[in-house]
């Protein structure tokens, strides 16, 4: 007779233990909505206290595309900006200092630092944007809703999936706005190209160029201008999924590619010593 002690082993041989079924694969993550991404992007930009980055820019001008590579350091409250491009030109702006002007080291003879209005024509030479828009000021303008127009341009953005920039996962946002065009606008008096651009969300460069006016010109009431009704006909934004800050942006208008920017070595919200926003800093040539 089989020993009772052997029954459990015999049963195990005949009936192997039942193992729990493997867990079901995790459900795919729900795709983010366009509105949620634009809101997160705007929030991330608005919460920047400091920013270090390198920017590769390409901007269309009447004589062709101008290329630039610029190192940027930016701090807010008060606004402080330091720029140095590949030619060695340096710019330092500190809110509340130098009578509102920026210090500029031209990196050429006579190698003397000068002071310039950051919104003036000299500072805008071969530049689409004011030094005060350094960093993500341009992108903030792209996604906000200007008071003069409807939100049609912002609503034209669509989340197009994911991509990779500089080895970093990014959200891809694209705007197609075929109704982009120049419209007639009558000034109300006391306006500048920048103030009008702020109302329409279109950037002041094309207003100044199209109407042959200076950036600092205060315009009389009733002057008719040709003004873009949006920032671009097509816009592409690649937003870092971790930082929620753009790594690349490109804008097309009625003439083709208008401008593109690529951001690298982006370090947000890490302390920058105050000395690095002083014209006497040891690494600067002011």
From TrEMBL:
- The leader peptide range reads 1-20
What are the protein's UniProt keywords? Signal
- Read off the Pfam families from this record: DUF1571
- Can you tell which superkingdom this protein's organism belongs to? Bacteria
- Which SUPFAM superfamilies does this UniProt record tie to the protein? LysM domain
Annotated InterPro entries: DUF1571 (IPR011465), LysM_dom_sf (IPR036779)
Protein's UniProt keywords contain Repeat: no
Indicate yes or no for the key word Cell wall biogenesis/degradation.
no
- Protein's name in the database: DUF1571 domain-containing protein
Q: Which organism is it from?
A: Hymenobacter jeollabukensis
Q: List the top taxonomic levels of the source.
A: Bacteria, Pseudomonadati, Bacteroidota, Cytophagia, Cytophagales
């Amino acid at each position: 007779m089989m020993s009772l002690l052997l029954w459990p082993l015999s049963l195990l041989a005949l009936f192997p233990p039942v193992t729990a079924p493997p867990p079901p694969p995790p459900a795919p993550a729900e795709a983010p909505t366009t509105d949620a991404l634009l809101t997160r992007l705007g929030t991330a930009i608005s919460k920047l206290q400091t920013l270090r980055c390198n920017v590769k820019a390409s901007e269309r001008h009447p004589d062709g595309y101008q290329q630039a590579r610029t190192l940027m350091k930016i701090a807010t409250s008060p606004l402080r900006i330091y720029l140095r491009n590949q030619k060695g030109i340096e710019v330092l702006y500190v809110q509340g200092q130098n009578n509102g002007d920026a210090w500029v080291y031209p990196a050429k003879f006579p190698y003397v630092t000068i002071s310039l209005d950051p919104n003036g024509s000299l500072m805008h030479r071969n530049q689409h944007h004011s030094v005060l828009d350094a960093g993500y000021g341009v992108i903030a303008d792209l996604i906000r809703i200007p008071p003069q127009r409807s939100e049609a341009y912002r609503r034209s953005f669509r989340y197009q999936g994911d991509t990779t920039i500089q080895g970093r996962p990014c959200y891809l946002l694209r705007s197609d706005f075929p109704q982009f065009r120049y419209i007639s606008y009558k000034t109300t008096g006391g306006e500048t190209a920048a103030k009008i651009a702020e109302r329409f969300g279109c950037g002041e460069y094309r207003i100044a160029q199209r109407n042959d006016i200076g950036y600092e010109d205060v315009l009389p009431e009733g002057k008719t201008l040709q003004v873009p009704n949006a920032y671009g006909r097509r816009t592409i934004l690649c937003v870092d999924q971790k930082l929620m800050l753009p790594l690349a942006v490109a804008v097309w208008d009625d003439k083709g590619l208008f401008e593109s920017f690529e951001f690298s070595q982006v370090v947000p919200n890490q302390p920058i010593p105050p000395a690095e926003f002083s014209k006497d800093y040891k690494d600067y040539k002011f």
